[in-house]
Each structure stands twice: as structure tokens, then as C-alpha cells.
């Protein structure tokens, strides 16, 4: 179904019983969002080329988390009690609360709530996600603890950025930052500059400030700021690991770099309290 608005249109396509793909067309940008996972799949602010990468081999039918765009890792980052990587928010269908088309921006609000969605994390919760697509992009998620006990959670907005090739990209702000190296399992590593982001790389940097993904091949910079998130996670699997991952199309690891805005340590939330976290993304030519 296609709905027309003054400044653009929305095409809704049901892909399975688990969700729909929402295709937003606006004079200034295009974007795609999957209700399964509440996941941004693309954002294409004109005249730049598309900002996010999405695998051509990833199923969109709800059978597993979608590999691409911005998977939402919540209520935990990484593994937790052997209950799977990155929590369950990316594996459930979110509801569309509202969509608003304006002259310069499209705002989309999605909601996920429930109790006992995982044995490891059975508490009642509500997540409200506000996406604002424009010539910039912003994403904010508010978590409300609707249970009667204090809850802990961690999170990451797992951005898959489309790049010319990881070997042509750098993040200058991280060269003097301490990090945990997930590959060697060493924590608290002193700053060590990467020549480029060619994989395998899997690091958690402890840094609050804005970072810039410089892509010399595309001649483009992506500036990412975050709030209520103390870490940046930089990940690319490299060829050997990627070749074992059926949801990365052949050679796909040469097309993206993940720069994730996260909080990999637990945060605590009192009953009936809310906590928000999010990010803002800007693009410019070098
Ligand atoms: O395959 P998943 O669960 O989407 O995770 C992908 C990667 O996500 C990154 O955030 C982690 O640091 C990596 O260790 C992990 O491999």
C-alpha cells in the first residue's frame, strides 16, 4: 500500500507475519525501516550515496536478526548467560505508533513492549524509538522499566556503514583512546592507532565524544554523536570470519564498517523510571 503526503510517500510491504518494510520517499532523502527489529535498513540523503549497508543475503522474514542498517542491541550487548548475542529487541516485531511527514523531516515512532521475552531477562519493559530522517539523522530510544524490581541493561545502536572499502577508512578521534580488544580478549589496552579499518577488527573504545568515519575512497565523512552511551564499538569480521557467516553476501565484508554507539557496561533503572539513549548522524564531502 502506498500513502501520499504533501512532502513524500510511504510504501508499506508486508514481508511475513513478523513485520513490514516501510519505504519512505521524500524530496530530500529516501529511507527504509523494518518493523521486525524496529530496524533502520537504509537512509539516503540526497545528493550523497546511501549511508547504511545491508547484506543481500540477510533474510527479512523474521527468521533471524537482519544483518544491515542499524540493528538494536538491547537489553544486552554481546553474549549474556549463553542466551544469544545482543539481546532480543532486534528479533521482535515493533509497532508503528506514528509517522509524520514535514517539509524537511520525516519522524517515525516505533514501540516494543512486553514481559518474559527472554528467560535471561524476563522483566516488563517498554521501548519507544523515535527516528528523524532529514539531511541529518537522529535516533532516540527511551526504555521504561514497567516491572517492580531494579533492572540492568546494556545496549548498542549497531550501525553498518556503507564504505568504499574498509582499507580506505579511518576514525581519527579514536587513535588516542583506550580500548578492549574482543579478538585477543584483552581489556584495557592502551591507545594503538589502526592504519585503517580492514578486518578482522573488534574493539570497544571507551569514549564519550563524537567520532568521524572518514572514507577516502568515497570522499565522504560520516560524523556520529551519541548520548548516554560511553563506548564506540568498531567491528569488521574480515574475510575468514565473514566467509563462515551465511547472512553476509560474498565479499560483503569489503563494503561495510560497523561503528556502534553503545553502552557495554550495565546501567540500572528503578521501577517506573525511564532512561533514554541515542545518536545523531551527519554527512559531508571531504
Ligand atoms: O553476529 P552478530 O550477533 O550480529 O554480532 C556481530 C558483531 O557485533 C559486534 O558488536 C561485536 O563486537 C562482535 O563481536 C560481533 O561479532
From TrEMBL:
<dbReference type="InterPro" id="IPR008183">
    <property type="entry name" value="Aldose_1/G6P_1-epimerase"/>
</dbReference>
<feature type="active site">
    <location>
        <position position="158"/>
    </location>
</feature>
<feature type="active site">
    <location>
        <position position="260"/>
    </location>
</feature>
<dbReference type="GO" id="GO:0047938">
    <property type="term" value="F:glucose-6-phosphate 1-epimerase activity"/>
</dbReference>
<dbReference type="InterPro" id="IPR025532">
    <property type="entry name" value="G6P_1-epimerase"/>
</dbReference>
<dbReference type="GO" id="GO:0005975">
    <property type="term" value="P:carbohydrate metabolic process"/>
</dbReference>
<keyword id="KW-0413">Isomerase</keyword>
<dbReference type="Pfam" id="PF01263">
    <property type="entry name" value="Aldose_epim"/>
</dbReference>
<dbReference type="GO" id="GO:0030246">
    <property type="term" value="F:carbohydrate binding"/>
</dbReference>
<protein>
    <recommendedName>
        <fullName>Putative glucose-6-phosphate 1-epimerase</fullName>
        <ecNumber>5.1.3.15</ecNumber>
    </recommendedName>
</protein>
<dbReference type="InterPro" id="IPR014718">
    <property type="entry name" value="GH-type_carb-bd"/>
</dbReference>
<comment type="similarity">
    <text>Belongs to the glucose-6-phosphate 1-epimerase family.</text>
</comment>
<dbReference type="InterPro" id="IPR011013">
    <property type="entry name" value="Gal_mutarotase_sf_dom"/>
</dbReference>
